Amino acid sequence: MSAYKFAIHGGAGTIEKHMLSPEQELAYLNGLQSALEKGKTILSNGGTALDAVEQAVILLENNPLFNAGKGSVFNHEGKHEMDAAIMDGKNLKAGAVTCISNIRNPIELARKVMDESEHVLLSGAGAESFAKMKNMNFESDTYFHDEYRFDQWQEIKNTNKTQLDHTEKKFGTVGAVALDIHGNLTAATSTGGMTNKRWGRIGDTPIIGAGTYANNQTCAISCTGHGEFYMRAVVAYDISCLMEYKRLSLKEACDLVVMQKLVAIGGEGGLIAIDKYGNLELPFNSAGMYRGWCDDANMETAIYSE
Ligand code: ASP
Question: Is 173 a catalytic residue?
Fold first, then answer.
């Protein structure tokens, strides 16, 4: 048996102390805290890393502060199109969904794709039919309507711009990574993508190896940032490969990819990572990242860079 470790994120980007009121700051920290507690309860009772990441992400999806599930941003057509992925490091099984609408918890659907279909990635109407067949919870458009996100969209809907959540440079995707006492690593990520996105744009989140990856031999990774760059840099898999083939430590691999390779191509954001020994890294090259982690003895949440 190993000790468990758990980490979550609620997005990275230009998040600076002066931008949040004390009340807003507290609301974000509380949202992170309850997701952490959810994961901790599961892991400390001998539950699986898969359940821990799924259940924590469900809580974050249900929290309108984060750009996933209920809080998803508006696309160019004024709708919400969501992406999510989950991966099991024990057997490299993965499930993902992209461009889905009206599903209450996209991460739950990603898990069903992994556990109950022979596929890895389902999209749009097809994914929604699969969800109906599995009796998943659907919600009306009003469930996903948030005045704040609506205003963000109104500002740019007649332009060709896509915008990252909240400000030009803020990414509100959510994610979780876990190592359970059975030695299994898992990762889960969920997002509404970018405000005013169109043409069926898909980011890194549901792309296995880009925004989400887990392998018991190396590490579990969940990313948040400008998805186009994360896909081009194949961020999550690159970190795993640097550990597997070049024998880099988790820290060395994360530093190289987030602080050097991504920066070199202009990719802003961060990620959360745990390796098979329970080492933890929460690197970001942006001003801040909503994040938290816990193990048996500690629990911490943070927003800004130290
Ligand atoms: N990575 C996400 C995307 O590009 C955005 C985010 O992290 O908030 O869709």
Answer: yes
Domains of the chain: 5-304 (3.60.20.30)
Per-residue pLDDT of the chain (306 residues; tens, 9 = 90+): 679 999 999 999 888 888 889 999 999 999 999 999 999 999 999 999 999 999 999 999 999 999 999 999 888 888 999 999 999 999 999 999 999 999 999 999 999 999 999 999 999 999 999 999 999 999 999 999 888 788 777 877 777 666 555 445 566 899 999 999 999 999 999 999 988 899 999 999 999 999 999 999 999 999 999 999 999 999 999 999 999 999 999 999 999 999 999 999 999 999 999 999 999 999 999 999 999 999 999 999 999 997
> Ligand 1 in contact with 193 (CB < 6 A)?
yes
For the CA of 172, the nearest atom of ligand 1: 8
List the catalytic residue out of 173, 191, 212, 224: 173
Distance from residue 18's CA to the centre of ligand 1 (Å): 23
The CB density around residue 162, as the number of other CB atoms within 10 Å, is 17
Pocket test for ligand 1, best of 173, 196, 289 (most atoms within 8 A of CB): 173
Measured from the CA of 193, which atom of ligand 1 is nearest? 9
Pick the atom of ligand 1 nearest to 230's CA. 1
